[in-house]
Amino acid sequence: MALTPFIASLRPNSCNFALQKYLSGMYRTITCGALRIADKGKTVTLAGWVQTIRKFGSITFVDLRDRYGITQLVFDEKETQKLESENVGREFVLQATGSVRERSNKNKNIPTGEIEIEIHSFKVLNPSVTPPFTIQDDTDGGEDLRMKYRYLDLRRNVLRKNLELRYSVTRATRNYLHSHNFIEIETPYLIKSTPEGARDFVVPSRMNAHEFYALPQSPQTFKQLLMVSGFDRYYQIVKCFRDEDLRADRQPEFTQIDCEMSFVEQEDILQTFEGLIKSILKDVKGIDLKEPLQRMSFADAMWNYGNDKPDIRFEMLVKNLKTESEIHLDALKGSSFGVFEQAETILAISVPGAADYSRKQTDELTDWVRRPQIGMAGLAYIKYHEDGSLKSSIDKFFSPDKLIQFADFCGSKKGDLILILAGKEEKTRKAISELRLFMGDRLGLRDNSIFKLLWVTDFPLFEYEEENNRWVARHHPFTSPKPEDIDTMIHNSPVITDKEHYLKHPFAAIKANAYDMVMNGNEIGGGSIRIHQKDLQKKMFEALAISDEEANEKFGFLMNAFQYGAPPHGGIAFGLDRVCAILGGSESIRDFIAFPKNNNGRDMMIDAPSPIEDKQLKELSLALGEIN
Ligand code: ASP
Question: Which of 162, 267, 300, 337 could form a disulfide with 397 if both were Cys (CB 3.0 to 4.6 A apart)?
Answer without folding.
Answer: 337
